[in-house]
Amino acid sequence: MLTATLGGLIKDFRLKKRLSQQEVSLRIGWKDTTRLSKIEQGRVGKPTLPTIKKVIKALDLDERDTGEFLLTGGYLPTEEEVKDRLKELVKKVEDWPYPAYINDFGWRFLYSNGKNLDVFNLDIKWQARLLKEKPSLLLFPFLPKDVMPVQVFKGEDAANLKPFVMAQVATFKMETFLYQYETWYKKTVQSLMSYPEFISAWATVTENDYHKKLLDYEYKRIQGIYNKQELTLNFHVTVARLIKDPRFQVVFYYPADKATAEFKYKH
């Protein structure tokens, strides 16, 4: 069933615009208010994206409100929307002097600068695959060691770090909880069921394992072999959400110590 949150948001915007259900329904082309009333009350299944875009147009929402609306409703960006946002954001990511990448609220990995790929020591064939397939960020802790031969730890600070598997699963569970009935959420989880370690983590990790106190910040430690030398890289990681469409965000890394600041990137 449709969540009351989305229906309530439609009603809030409608009242803010001083529009009656009848006026909105007429703008959409519906013969009466029955359908809109049921949507607002959460008494019907979730509207399709084409239908919800008709509602958005009838409410005359600007770009920012539209993004917030679609985020609340759990509507993943379309391929066309992804392309448009990447045009805006790629240069910022490429110009960043440290690792950075772009993802959406559904945890799809949309774009990365070369420095991010460097610190995770990703296999060169996988680098191209990432940009083509846009995999879930939930996949990364379960990649084979020959693909991503580093150890990763995440936490609220340097003194409170958790292994990548535990931290990533806990974060996904907590931060996408409201979308657990969405098709894309179910597909994401289902796609990882071939990994025994994922099945074990999913069954045991709880909200108590969630490591973040600030939604848009975490501390990350990456240990690996770089140019035949074992190194430990420490980063502050922050998230910047796109103002006009909060379904998209850019993740920026900052060196947390001198050794990390002096790390030599290939890209």
Model description:
- The structure is a single chain.
- The protein is an alpha+beta fold and 267 residues long.
- The chain is built from twelve helices and seven strands.
- The chain has helices at residues 4-16, 21-28, 34-40, 49-59, 63-73, 79-95, 114-119, 124-133, 164-175, 183-191, 196-204, 258-261; strands at residues 100-104, 109-112, 150-157, 160-163, 217-226, 229-241, 248-255.
- The chain has a seven-stranded antiparallel β-sheet with strand order 2-1-7-6-5-3-4, with helices on both faces.
- The longest helix has 17 residues, at 79-95.
- The mean pLDDT is 93.
Keywords:
seven-stranded antiparallel sheet; 12 helices; alpha+beta; 267 residues
Order of helices and strands: HHHHHHEEHHEEHHHEEEH
First and last CA, distance: 47 Å
Strand order of the largest sheet: 2-1-7-6-5-3-4
Rg of Cα set: 21 Å
Number of H- or I-type helical stretches: 12
Q: What's the total count of β strands?
A: 7
Described by the principal axes of the CA atoms, the overall outline is elongated
Give the uncertain stretches in residue-range form.
none
Task: Tell me about the largest β-sheet.
Answer: 7 strands, antiparallel
Strand content: 15-25%
Helix share, percent: 40-55%
Task: Give the mean pLDDT.
Answer: 93
Which structural class matches the secondary elements?
alpha+beta
Task: Annotate the secondary structure layout.
Blueprint: H1 4-16, H2 21-28, H3 34-40, H4 49-59, H5 63-73, H6 79-95, E1 100-104, E2 109-112, H7 114-119, H8 124-133, E3 150-157, E4 160-163, H9 164-175, H10 183-191, H11 196-204, E5 217-226, E6 229-241, E7 248-255, H12 258-261
